[in-house]
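Researcher: Re-running this chain for the archive, since the previous output was lost when a drive failed. Same request as before.
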Amino acid sequence: MTDIEITKVTARIGAQVSGVDISRPLDDGTVAALRDALNTHKALLFDDVHLDDEGQQAFARHFGDITGAHPTVPAVDGAPNVLPVDSEGGRAANNWHTDVTFVLNPPQASTLRSITVPPYGGETLIADSAAAYRDLPEPLRRLADTLWAEHTNDYDYAVPEEAVDEDEAARRARFTSIKYRTVHPVVRVHPLTGERGLFIGGFAQRIVGLSKGESRKVLDLLQAYVTRPENVMRRRWSPNQLVLFDNRITQHYAVDNYDGLPRRLHRVTVAGDIPVGIEGKESYSVEGDASHYTTVAG
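Model: Regenerated structure tokens:
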């Protein structure tokens, strides 16, 4: 195993990793060390990486089977497991979310690699939803423990509902070409660490048993704890960088502050398990089959 150095970048979330060349096959000890660091810090930052799409996929596979690029959005040409996150493909995803929570088993981890970065702006924010849960006052924590939320892709974080532009309307139609509705626990138990985290974000649209208006108020209240500044890491992109984050216990946000200049990242995600709440009950699907997109992690 190489001499890996892990350096925290904030008190609650994020660590810089050095001393490992992720463009090469990793031995079991190195993978275990990175997994331990990911469990602790939730997001790992790698600088000066020299990866192509194949290399990014190979790195992600160290943590499990990889998913398709997306259940409905087209992949990079010739790379069906790689999603282009491209400013030219629509608006920035300037909405807090956890990747693909509208399916039964969202990815356990996501990798983002910088391809084209603007000269300013374009940061990615990543928030620690376990720290958010710990921040909740006890009455709110007890309430959150009992709640389940319906997540759906019939709400596009990348294209606003009021969009009338033909291209944006077409992107929205493609994004919702298969409609998904899945019910997840609002408080998810991490399968490796046992930590509890708020499993909500932009695709969580309704609390089971509450009206849409009541749901919005409750979700906004809980979400405010996720996005407290002390729970957030801000990543300013440079060329040849990669971020690996635990999608089970984080949210992220792409900041649209670069005046529409070119910005492109490539995303590869690792297949995940079915979320479990504090009483051991699993999430359940209401609508939509995502088996073409992802397996269930064992």
